[in-house]
Amino acid sequence: MSFFHCRRPVAAIGAMLAFLGGTSLAHAHEKWFLEGERPELQAHGFLTPYCLSAVAVAAVFTLAGWFFWRTRQRVDLVPGPERLGATAAGLTRFYALVPFILGIHFAVPLLVLGVQGRLFSPNNQPAAPWNLLIGTLEIAIALSFLYGGLTRLFATALGLLWVGAAASLGWEIALENLHYLGAAVFFYCTGRGPQSIDRMLFPALEPSPGAR
To answer: In this structure, are residues 143 and 107 in contact, taking their beta carbons and an 8 Å threshold?
Structure first.
């Protein structure tokens, strides 16, 4: 995976946050369809036998995979691109496209939510006039990620918006939308790649080669 080849671990952490946050969205989607008062988070539910048994199974599979990996002298368990015939030139072209692909992936929901005046997900409706200001900012961030213009500036704005959401709506809402913080860190560290306005018109705003 290209993210793990980043020279700076912060960019890899940002990509991982974007991935891990995205994998938890299925549970968060349930709140999009609730009407009335939102139920409080039941933190003690983690201590139920059902949840603890699931964690135990996951831990057992993880340890078994690690042991099997060690017995195979640290050979990858899942074939990577190189073992499936990928060339260095092909990998380079693909890695150059990753920021472009992620930019579209995050631009689409931010653009839709910005037009609706909602923050990060359909169940978060800020009060007026904040919904208009937040929606405008989300649209600006979406266009920046889509076209690759002033990407690092708007990545910083996205990170600050996530912190503001945590402060105003609570950490539960912020953690449900952790992937946006991951996107902010990733794009700040890597920019939007070669297919971007920044690379063509504002190269001084791009991160240094050592950060990409």
So the answer is: yes
